[in-house]
Amino acid sequence: MMRYQSPDLEQNSPCSHKDGRPDKPEEACGVFGVYAPGKAVAKLTYFGLYALQHRGQESAGIATFEEDRVYCHKDMGLVSQVFNEDILEELPGYMGIGHTRYSTTGSSLRANAQPAVLDTRLGKLALAHNGNIVNVLDLKEKVSKPDRHFLTTTDSEMIAFAIADEVDGGKNWLDAAVDAFKSCKGAYSLVIGTPEGMIGARDPNGIRPLVIGILEGKKPRYVLSSETCGLDIIGAEYLRDVEPGELVWITESGLSSIHWAEKPERKLCVFEMIYFARPDSVMHDESLYSYRLRLGEELAKESFVSADMVMGVPDSGIPAAIGFSRASDIAYGEGLIKNRYVGRTFIQPTQGMREAGIKMKLNTLKDAIANKRVIIVDDSIVRGTTSRKIVGALRDAGAAEVHMRISSPPVTHPCFYGIDTDNQDQLIAATKSVKEIEKQIGVDTLAYLSWEGMLKVTNKDTDSFCSACFTGDYPISIPDRMKRSKLMLETTTK
Ligand code: SF4
Is the pLDDT of residue 144 over 60? Predict the structure, then answer.
């Protein structure tokens, strides 16, 4: 059964963010793959994606392989909306490739849902991609043919065609993939299904994460996931990361590896650690919760202010708020309660509700806040609109003073590697000083963590991270045409 949804490039998704964009950077995608003959791979893939839901909420898809056939279902919506027991039953096979998507290249369209499935000389391939190719126009030119119709508007389909063309030119899967990767510039963590086995690969800088897990049994079986939380949910043990510039090949015989990049240079997106990835995911041998606690501790050392309570913006600001509290000896308390069951709503609120601001998602605990000097900790400020509403709500609740502390440096530059951080002119810190932002969002004081502090507490080589959205120092050069689309101001470097 092929369950392709018909491509409809004109159709706009109800999930589109073109209006009312959320005031946070948005993660690009989550990828997942499992090679496990004899196991319910569609279900395992479903739960893997379920754990990776935070990485993309616009569409979800699973492709399964059974001998030379591929079964695929993908659609707009959350993982739990796209799949049910009946649909999973109709996805048989020994290998599953899964994807959750937030659009960074190509609009939010049903046709752009992944995995991308293509025919080749050696059978079908199914590709799931997290990241962003910066030379996508060159790549498109390379793979364009007079009789070729692109089904999507994504860079991921270009990568799939690049591999398919190498296969059709006579290469085996591995040589084809490596040669295709060599013509891709940018960020890509990939899980690719083929009739002969499953490929996991990261770009030479390893900007987006990708981990390998093992499902124990008579014969160990391998799992690939954007984050370790995707392994935990199905009971797989973390084995190791796919290295930057590495391709792993998973078949009936086990796992083998090719280090194909000439000069791999580790540049993991530091924002994954600060905010995007789940706090229970492990990077560099520790949970991101622990890293975020230390960010808060460092923040307290750098920008202590006397107050009665420290609170975090739920959920992502909470670990750093706890760290701030521990290091400052100021009591931690809750002051904002999140409605955990709120999804994206497409019903327009009434004018009165709109004026009430954030209350649909967050509500204040008035008796905890009234007459207190409050420190509110968040992980980042992008445009500042949500921060202003939160501060207003705290003042309405009777806070005597509101001090905001941010556990990352000011976001001054857009991301080109798979995170939607808006155009540069929309980033409040790109055009305003800390004092000006303080005034705009209405706080008594505002302080950000320093760039040095953010990297110091990784306890790793500070050169092994991308931090370009804080510095403008992009580790992979950006073609001018792409730069112009997002970098509205001067391109500064740190
Ligand atoms: S520019 Fe920022 S968000 Fe993008 S990869 Fe680099 S650190 Fe991550």
Answer: yes
